[in-house]
Design goal:
Elements lengths: L6 H23 L7 H14 L3 E2 L11 E5 L2 E3 L14 E10 L2 E10 L5 H19 L7 H14 L3 E2 L5 E3 L6 E5 L16 E4 L2 E3 L5 E3 L6 E3 L5 E3 L2 E6 L2 E4 L9
Antiparallel strand pairs: 1-4, 2-4, 3-12, 4-5, 6-10, 7-8, 7-9, 9-14, 10-13, 11-12, 14-15
Helix pairs in contact: 1-2, 3-4
The chain binds 2-amino-4-trifluoromethylsulfanyl-butyric acid and cobalt (II) ion (CO).
Cobalt (II) ion binds next to loops.
Length: 254
């Protein structure tokens, strides 16, 4: 069952999403060679506190941090560490969510550390663009897998691969709600999209093979071939007039 949110509920989700977008924007400006992922997590905690927002990930299935920081071959759920100092040429995915007044927002961006290779730039650009291709299919009357298919087609045409093990999700009164949203699949399958559905769409795209493995910390997912991976995520709402992105940084308070 996918919940259709009322106007009042969407306003609460919108508020959480605005806070998430603002915090990610501020975090991205802190990304420089020499910064540790631990510092970025601490800053995310500080910014959330200032907004009276509760970080959504800390405590979720025992995850111990507010922020996920996934560097280079790390795909998702990378854990902040005092020992992980970002260096010129790295890419780092910052994945963050909050809950305010019982409603959640969730978003991720992949940020370059200083000057990065052309291949890393292309991976980040294609991953972000694939998210927008997916979002453009989040139209009332379409089916869920139209989103999935648009992402996969765009990515694979450009020689990159889609991670299968992690998916997007419905979001609202919980971080993860129905439906699951794979980033691959044939078009025209799954439920019909309706106004009021709130979805977190989050392609994780690899520069090499799609396979991933989980490290011994039981959280960090890395590419099996240790090539680069990128990740972008937005929370969106399906409206009568098409998709509306709730975690756009342009809508965030400065
Ligand atoms: N955006 C990620 C997701 O929706 C972040 C979850 S991290 C966790 O899966 F720690 F909360 F699991
Ligand atoms: Co998510």
């Amino acid at each position: 069952m996918i919940i259709l949110r009322s106007h009042a509920e969407i306003e609460k989700i919108r508020n959480s999403c605005r806070i998430v977008a603002g915090i990610l924007q501020k975090l991205s400006r802190r990304v420089h060679p020499g910064v540790t992922t631990w510092d970025l997590n601490a800053f995310s905690e500080e910014l959330a506190k200032k907004e009276d927002a509760k970080p959504a990930f800390r405590g979720y299935h025992g995850y111990p941090f507010a922020l996920c920081t996934s560097v280079n071959e790390e795909v998702v759920h990378g854990m902040p560490s005092k020992h992980r100092r970002l260096k010129e040429g790295d890419i780092v995915s910052l994945d963050f969510g909050v809950v305010v007044d019982n409603y959640y927002g969730d978003s991720a961006i992949t940020v370059p550390v200083g000057h990065i290779s052309d291949e890393a730039t292309r991976l980040c650009t294609v991953t972000e663009e694939s998210l927008y291709r997916g979002i453009s299919q989040a139209v009332a009357g379409n089916r869920l897998s139209d989103i999935s298919h648009a992402i996969q087609e765009f990515v694979e045409e450009r020689g990159f691969s889609v991670v299968r093990e992690f998916v997007g999700h419905g979001i609202g009164q919980h971080l993860h709600e129905s439906p699951q949203i794979p980033n691959y699949g044939p078009p025209g399958k799954g439920v019909r999209l309706k106004p009021g559905m709130v979805l977190a769409i989050e392609p994780m795209i690899n520069s090499g093979a799609p396979e991933v493995e989980i490290l011994e910390d039981q959280w960090t997912a890395v590419t099996l071939d240790r090539k680069l991976s990128a990740h972008f995520e937005h929370t969106i709402v399906v409206t009568e007039n098409g998709p509306e992105i709730l975690t756009r940084s342009e809508t965030a308070l400065q």
